[in-house]
Amino acid sequence: MYQNHTKDTNNNCNKSRLCDHKEKLIQAIKRIKHEVDECKDAERETYIESVEVEHRFDDLEREIRAEFQNLHRFLDEEECRDLERLSREKKKQLKQLKDREKKIAEQGRDLQNAIAVLNSKLTEDDSPKLLKEIQDLIKRSHVSFVLPVEIDTEVRSGQFVGPIQYRIWKHMKNCLYPIWFDDDKDTGDCQANPRRFNYYYCIFGHQAFISGRHYWEVEVGNKTAWRLGVAQEDVPRGEMAATGTSSGLWTLALKGGSIQACTDPQPTKIKVSLRLVRIGVFLDCEKEEVTFYNAITMSPIYTFSMETVGVPLFPYFNPCDTDDGKNIAPIKVFNPSL
Predict the structure, then answer these.
(1) Number of C-beta neighbours around residue 293 at 10 A
(2) What is the CATH number of domain 175-185+192-334?
(3) What keyword terms does UniProt attach to this protein (predicted)?
(4) Calculated CA dihedral for residues 267, 272, 278, 283, nearest 10 degrees
(5) Which of 159, 176, 46 is CA-nearest to residue 92?
(6) In terms of pTM, does the model score above 0.85?
(7) Sign of CA dihedral 187, 188, 193, 199
(8) Where are the domains of the chain?
(9) What is the pLDDT of residues 214-253, one digit of tens each?
(10) Which residues contact 78 (CB under 8 A, 6 or more apart)?
(11) What gap in Å lies between CA 337 and CA 308, rounded to an integer?
């Protein structure tokens, strides 16, 4: 009987342990099902993200193709203009040569007619009248060929070809939106103009942008410090606690010998393989991005995402202080365009 009691006790204990383990198993199944749900959610989100990425790359591909189509169209138009100019010069020279040829032929016919008249008198019977006619003809026969003025027929390659690639590139530069500086030079009362920066060495471009895509280049040369990029119209004009994106500035700077993207809360150091002497700034209002390029190699340096901006945007320039005479060189703004 004691053995039976012990056996029942063991069975009850085993049943209790089995129930506990089954409960743990159920909890494990629930946890794994939750993990499965998370896995499916992550898989679905990744699929959606992959579709979105594919669409973004497809959009970029279409954009690149459209840009190159614009380039091809521009080059086709330039080619047509050059060929039309060449054709006009060709027609002009050929017409001049044809006119000269015509004048020479007319003189040739006149000379042949003169010979024919003179020859006709040689066949007539001698008479006093013939003598007088011959004497008159001899007086009038002093005709000679006068060569018309020479035509300049040299075809000068330099007028139509020359450095054609550079020439076309120069034409392409004229397509950009121009960048102007504010021409308000009245410094008699700095407080009278709330638009003027009164703490930093800053200046805006004159033109504001609210839409479209815009590109300009800034030559910084051997300056030891500079800052440039894009700023909101309502950026503070005085001293700022933060001078990065939170203040409405999307800028690149040279400071302490290193290139920095002026991000918040701390600037982001940028490694560049070549010294930057000319920087391209590309503002895409639709994509809400500002991208900086090495304008010599056109390699990208850094891209800011601006998010939604509800105020006009201006080109922003800061040549920085003189650094004890080491940083007195100006910055120069150029407007190349594709």
Answers:
(1) 20
(2) 2.60.120.920
(3) Coiled coil
(4) -50
(5) 159
(6) no
(7) positive
(8) 1-110, 175-185+192-334
(9) 888 999 988 999 999 998 887 776 555 556 788 888 999 9
(10) 168, 171
(11) 26
